[in-house]
Every structure is written in structure tokens, then in C-alpha cells.
Amino acid sequence: MRPTRGTIVFLTSDYADYSKAAVESVSAVAQAAGFGTLCVTGRELAPEADIKSEQAVCNGIYQLIEQVNFAGLICESGLLGHRAGSDAVVRFLSRFRLPCVSLGLDVPDIASVIVDDTIGMTQLMEHLVTDTACRRFAFVQGLDGDMFSMERERIFRKVLAQHGRQIDESLFVRGNYDVFDAYKVVEQMLRASGDVDAIVAANDTMALSAARAASAAGLSIPRDIVVTGFDDVPDATRISPALTTVRQPLVELAEIGIARLLELITDTPTGARPVISPERRLSQLSSDFVMRGSSAKATAPSGDGGRIDADALHELIVVGMSGLKAPAGTDMRAMASAVEDTIAHGTPALADHLTRVAARIDPGDAHWWSNLCHQIEELGQRLLQESDGRTRLPLIEAALARVRERIWASEMEREFAARRLERMRSNMQLQIGSSTGIEEILGAIDHWTFAFSPKRLFLVRYDEPASRPRPVGRLIRAFRAGVIESVGDGVMATCDILPVGFAEELERGTLLMNPVYAGSDHFGYLLIDPEGLDLSQIDSAAHSIGNAMRSQYLIDALESQALRLRDVNLELSTLANQDALTSLPNRLFFERKLRELCERDGNAGRFALCFLDLDGFKAINDTLGHEMGDALLKSVTARLENVVTELVGESGFVARLGGDEFTIIVDSDSLDADLEGLMPAVLDTLGAAHLLAEKSVRVSASIGCAICPDHGRDASTLLNCADAAMYEAKAGGKNDFVMYQKAFEDASMRVASEPCTDEPADTVHDAGTGQSRCVEGLHRRVA
């Protein structure tokens, strides 16, 4: 294997028939010279004002290509500049700093290969004006402002004016290079003006639509109206009669372009800007007029009772079939003799001859045979005008029916195969487009890949969508020689197009590159080897993948948002129910818990509410500071949780109400025994010294307890009772546990009637609220 020299990139709008031949020609020459070919299809350049269109989104793939170190570049400028104009193409190509050749458009300072439409278009118009009886001409225009359409229209007007033909402005209609637009405007024109003799379209696509519109209006081509096109696309010969057109030498154009590019690559040092001599910068080819049956109006003779010789018939058939390549082994003179014998003598010679050849009709030649049948039928109808000759028309029609039956069967086979492939493609694209998860997307792509069996396929995905290609991508699928290959993590710089392990694929054969997009975003790109495949719908497939990736991204984004929302809600719930300093349940949580216990069905079961207040906490706050006080509260919290968990387990619940106030709820079947063991343990553990910042600190606790339902059945009553009992523990000398009694409440009411004028015994700093408040005064008010 000869060493590779790099990659030549071919920029075009899409991979249709028009571009496919050029790409194949470039690739063949490039491969022989040791280069791979990367064909990048990013649509026509969008006008600058149209930055949000789907077309403009696809153009973004060209921005990625600018960053890649290719050996050289060929640009189908004529196609890319259709809508945006030549100035946009000039600006576009000026961004590339590598050997470059423009095809179809003359770009200043860049090697350009162009086709002169003047010769072919002039020949077509001269043919229509001099060789036919046409007097009134219509012209179907391309896109508004399109340079090629305007040039062809200029020649159209010029030739008509030179021959003194009237130019009717109402017969100029805009087909926009679109099948449906062209059909519609031609249909409307023919309805408004029924005396049109010739329709000249700026390209074959619109001419074919014009022919269909004329046939739908009851006009016979070319007997009643002549139709011509431009470009000589494959479909131009697949209708009957075949379309008269102008052929552009696309293959020769591409071959000259790649030869010129290889010269530039050889002559230009690496990293240098190519220097192009003025005399060699521009290469120009001429277009060719191709006369076929759709304008053969003057070639059909008038009838003379069927008296015509075989040589004359041969000449008429050859002229009518001009521009069409006859199948190998076809004897046109024998065909003409059989036609002459049947027309002149009423013999079955034509039927016998066609019966022998019909069995050999190749499906690829069906369009030629269809045109031949049309020519013979037209000749027969014109030559057998007299009444005595018309009886022979059924012989011609019967003979042609055998060929047409074979053509029909062949076409049905081709149509069936095409529809089967299209149905497979549509189903695969639907499956891909309806996928959501990335594995589901890849599974659908795998089905599509195995169904169409490309030699190579690579799918690169960006981690996040963006309005332009991302600098980093991830190869998520690699398919070579019928095998799905492992890609590892696949992470790569997109300026490399493919990861290191697959980079050599760019330097051999041809890869077609299409952006994977949806809406206004790029999601990656698809690389596929076009050899042996119909990839005219590759953009549609890439768009389906983009839609699936967008759905997957949106679903992931929604799930991520849902998770973030859940976390935020959890955090908010925690903040709303948790004490900021100690992380214990706060007053709000405690009150809800207490209500739930009091309101459970039938108030079943007993539970205890213990109200705990620290003794001497204010002195620590005042002498050691609030930070030490907060540390003490955290130490108290840890000891409370440990002792409650150890002695009563899940039956215990600890909360901080604020300041140095805590509550303990004990909800167990052995309540009395649990309280008898728990409360002394709480007093002991809290009373032991706390080591805070190398300082030994001691506090004690006063605890009051109330039992549900013994002392009350609602939360407010239980809380008041526990608070009264706690106050009694403080009044009795602190560091004690007291069970509520009715006498405590009566005493508390008497104290509450006395004004609180003295500074309360305990004023504490609440780290949760940042405020200080009177604890014992609050107890008295609550009581």
C-alpha cells in the first residue's frame, strides 16, 4: 500500500446526483495520488440575514472544517452560492488558508474552474427559434437573484430579440428550482395563456415539472408544446420524450479541478499561502446543447399515405433519439426496416422484431426503450393520417405493447426495490427519531447500518448541543467491514474529525460528512462511506439522529432539573425542619410531631413529653462568649442523642426549641420503666464536664415531664404541663427531673400574676435566631 499524503476536503451543498459524479471523479484522482477525500455537505450558504434558518444551522459544519489541517480543498462554489450570491462565496473561501480550487464560480485570487453557459444556452435557443415552429416562449426562472438563472435568462432574451420574436413578460414565471413551485406556476401560466409554444426552464428539475404540467393540461410534447431544461440530470432521459437540455461537463470540471489542486499542493510549502499565477488561475469549459425528443417538433414528417423508405425512417428515429445512448447490440437500421415494413405493408415485422429484443431489455436501459416506443408511436400516427393507413396503427400499438409490458415489469421491479429501500430508510429514520436514550438511539442506528451495509460509518456526538460545532466531541459508534468496533471513551478534539485510532480512515477512499442537527443546534456529525449506496437522503437521516439526540438531551436535562429540584426541596425542607446550630429537629418539626402523636387514632398508647432547660447556661455565655455557648449546645445535643438512642432507641425523639430549651418525647410500650432509667441518665450525662476549647465547662439540666393522656390529650395542654413541671424542677434546686402534678399549674398561675421586673435567671443567646431572650419569664408566661 502506498503511503498516504493526507486528506482533500470537498465542500458541497448536498450529495445529490449533481454532486455525486463530481465527488467520485475527484476521489478517484485523489486516491491515485495518495489522498483520501472528505466530502462535507453543509447546505448552500445562507444569506447573512437568514442566520436562524435550518440552512444556516447546517452551514455551521464549515466552521469546523476551517480548523482542520487538510492538504487541500475543492469547493462547489456554484452550488454553495446559489442563494447567498457570489460575494458570500468569496468571503467564505477567503477564510481558508490552504490550497483551494473553486468549481463553477470564478473566485478572485483562487484557482477556479468554470463552465461557460453561453455556448450551450445559445445553441438551445437557436435550435428552438430556427428548427421549430415556436413563436411564443415562456421562461421558468430559478431562485430570485441566482446568478446562473439570470445568465440563462439573459441569453434567452438576447436570442429572441435577435430573431425578432416578441418577449411577453407575463410568460416569465419563478419556479425557485423546486419541483412543486415550478409545476404550480407553469400550470397557472398555461391556464392563463393557452397559446404558449415553448417552455424553457433554467434547470432540468423545473423543466420536468413543466412537462408534467403541460401533459396535465392536455398538451402533447413536442407536438403541441416544446419543453427544454438545463444541466442534463439523469431524470432528463427517464421521461418520454426525453428532455432537450444543455449538458455541463461536470466530470471534466471535477477532473480539471483536482488536477489543478494537486499542482497547488505540490508547489505550495506546508503552512504557506498558495501563490497562483494570473494566467493559470482560471480554467473555462463550455456547455453542450443536447437535442432530444421534447423539442423534436420539426423532425416529424407530414403523412403521405405511409409511403416512406427505411433510410428516411432510420434518420427520423436517430434524430428523435439524439442525446440518448443506445443499449449495446441494438441494430437501429433493422429497427427502422421493421417499422417501414409494418407502416407501408401492414406486416407484423415490427412485432416480430420487438418480440426478439424485448427479452434482452436491461432494467438500466428502460428509459431508452421507453423513448424509442414514444418516437415510433409518434411517427406511426403522423405517417398514417389517411383513412386507409389508420387501420395499421393497431399493429404498431400491439408491437409496442410487448416492449412496454417488459419496460413496465422492469420499472416495477426497480420501483419496488426503490420503495423497499425507501420504506426501510423511512422506518429506520422513524425509529431513530423516536428514540430517547442514547443506547436506544445507537440500537436504531445499528439496525439502519446493517440494513444498508456501508463499508464505513462513524458517529461523533457533542456532550452538549450548541449553535456551532463544539471543540470536543465523542466517537460513539464505529462501523467497519460489517463489524461494530469498540471506541473506548471516544473523546477527541473535533479538529481531528476522528480519534487517533481511526484517523487513517480520513486518508483512504471517500467519507461523506453531514452535520447531525435539530432545530438551531448541532449535536455532532455523521461520517459514512458512500461507495455503492444511495445517500441522497443522508441529510434526512442525520436530521433524524439529531432529533433523537435532542429528545434525549431534553429528557436528561429535565431529569437533571428534577433531581436538582428534589435536592433543593430536600434542602429547603431540612432548613425548615432542622435547627441550624445542632441539626436537631426544630420547634416547627417538634410541634408537628407532637400534634401527630396526640391525634393518632383513638389516642392509642401513652407517651411522655419531657421539657429540658439547661441550668447556668447564661453564665457561660456571659463569661466565655457566644461561640463557647454554641459549642456547649452542640456538646449537649450529642450527649442527649447518644443517651436517648442507647436507652430507648427509636422510641425516643429529641428536639431543640431554641436557646437552651430541648424536648424529649418517649413513645414506648414500657413507658414508666423507660422514663425511670432514661431521666437519671440524661441528668448524669449532661452534668458531666464538657471539654470546650481545652476548657472544662459544667452545666446541669432541669426536666419537667407530662404524660399523654394522663395529663392531657392535646399538644398545647401537654406542653404547658411539661413546662410547669420543668419550672418546678428549677424552683426545687435545679438538676432534677419532675413529673407534672396539678399543684404545679396552680402555683405557676399565681407567679404569672406577679410582674416580672427583675432580670431573669437565664438569658441565653440563640445561635439559630441570633437573638437573646428571657427563659424563665417565658416559662411563667406560658404557664
Summarize the structure.
The protein is α/β, with parallel strands linked by helices and 783 residues long. The chain is built from 25 helices and 27 strands.
Provide the fold topology.
Elements: E1 6-12, H1 17-32, E2 35-41, H2 54-59, H3 61-66, E3 72-75, H4 77-80, H5 86-93, E4 100-103, E5 111-116, H6 117-131, E6 137-141, H7 147-162, E7 172-174, H8 179-192, E8 198-201, H9 204-216, E9 226-228, E10 245-247, H10 250-267, H11 278-281, E11 282-286, E12 288-290, H12 310-320, H13 332-345, H14 349-358, H15 366-383, H16 393-433, H17 438-452, E13 456-466, E14 472-480, E15 483-485, E16 491-493, E17 510-518, E18 521-528, H18 538-577, H19 587-598, E19 607-615, H20 617-624, H21 626-648, E20 652-658, E21 661-666, H22 671-687, E22 690-692, E23 695-697, E24 700-708, H23 715-731, E25 736-739, H24 742-752, E26 763-766, E27 771-774, H25 775-782
Parallel strand pairs: 1-2, 1-3, 2-17, 3-4, 4-5, 5-11, 6-7, 6-8, 8-9, 24-25
Antiparallel strand pairs: 10-12, 13-14, 13-18, 14-15, 14-16, 17-18, 19-21, 19-24, 20-21, 22-23, 26-27
